[in-house]
Amino acid sequence: MKKFRNGLALVTGLSLLAALSACANPSSAGTATDSDAPTGGNTAVEVAVDEEIAAMVPEEIRSKGSFTVSINPDIAPIKYVDENGKMAGLVPDLLTHAGAVMDLDVNLAKGTFDGMIPGIESNRFEVIGSINDFKERQATVDFIDYLKTGSAILVPADTEADEMTPQDLCGLRVGYGRGTVQQGLIEEASAECQAAGKEAIAVSPYGDGGAALLGVKSGQDDAYWGDAQSLLYNAKTTPEAYKVVYKDVAGPYGIGLNKENTEFRDALREALLSMVEDGTYDEVLKKWGQEEYALPELPLNTGPALEK
């Protein structure tokens, strides 16, 4: 028998879209810090607890009544900080609802990209929400793959070309996020430029996506190579400032957990799968414009190897 609880959660069904706040300007995202202090900001509403799934939660977490998710909030609409300074986006919505299904509160904590895997390995928090799933990361982290992803190149809206390839970046200044897969892609493309006798790509590394977007908007950079979801969203919502000239499909986004935390991994995955079954998963993706990237099977550890 299911019961209901008040908690950090989302309403189910069609009322989900009306109950949650609209997206903020994504260019304001990227205020990540090294702090893991919860930010809150989710609406307390009634969500059905699935008692069978709740029973799967290990006692260490059940006794606390909550778990902590570390998020680098710089990839709107997946995860960002809204105009009120609160966590928002697709992955906070999914995880706060899944927490309520398990009868748990969810602490959303600001983190930095390079602190994600070390933090999960040292059990500073229970969940990474989320990063690209790659085989190399699976050595210490299990991933619940919940969304297809890829890379894209964003340029100023007044750029003459509507389509570009990585080879067209030779001699240009390109921004990227430190430690991301795009850093390696730019290095590879730059080496190809030099091998062809062309000028190398000048790089602008950034700690967050908001700063990289500003680099393009201000004219400091000619382009920004980042996650497709974020850049397509920014181009769609701010067409007077940006456009996307290249995109590809790469490995999935994964919600990460410590490799040894298999009981909680399975409970969280079942909670997310229950959202697929009742339609909430589809509604959350639709709300954030990510329907074409749906991965409703929520497989484990399907990410590819990093390209060298």
Break the fold down into its secondary structure elements and pairings.
Layout: E1 3-8, H1 15-19, E2 44-49, H2 51-54, H3 59-64, E3 66-71, E4 74-75, E5 79-81, E6 87-88, H4 90-101, E7 105-110, H5 116-121, E8 127-132, E9 141-147, E10 151-156, E11 173-177, H6 181-195, E12 202-206, H7 209-217, E13 223-227, H8 228-237, E14 242-247, E15 253-258, H9 262-278, H10 280-287
Parallel strand pairs: 3-7, 3-8, 11-12, 11-13
Antiparallel strand pairs: 1-2, 4-5, 5-6, 8-15, 9-15, 10-13, 10-14
Helix pairs in contact: 4-9
Give an overview of the whole structure.
- This protein has 308 residues and is α/β, with parallel strands linked by helices.
- The protein has two domains: 3-149 and 251-293, Periplasmic binding protein-like II (D-Maltodextrin-Binding Protein, domain 2), CATH 3.40.190.10; 151-247, Periplasmic binding protein-like II (D-Maltodextrin-Binding Protein, domain 2, 3-Layer(aba) Sandwich).
- It has helices at 15-19, 51-54, 59-64, 90-101, 116-121, 181-195, 209-217, 228-237, 262-278, 280-287, and strands spanning 3-8, 44-49, 66-71, 74-75, 79-81, 87-88, 105-110, 127-132, 141-147, 151-156, 173-177, 202-206, 223-227, 242-247, 253-258.
- It has a five-stranded mixed β-sheet. The chain has a five-stranded mixed β-sheet with strand order 12-11-13-10-14, with helices on both faces. Strands 4-5-6 form a three-stranded antiparallel β-sheet.
- Strand 4 and strand 5 form a beta hairpin.
- The longest helix has 17 residues, at 262-278.
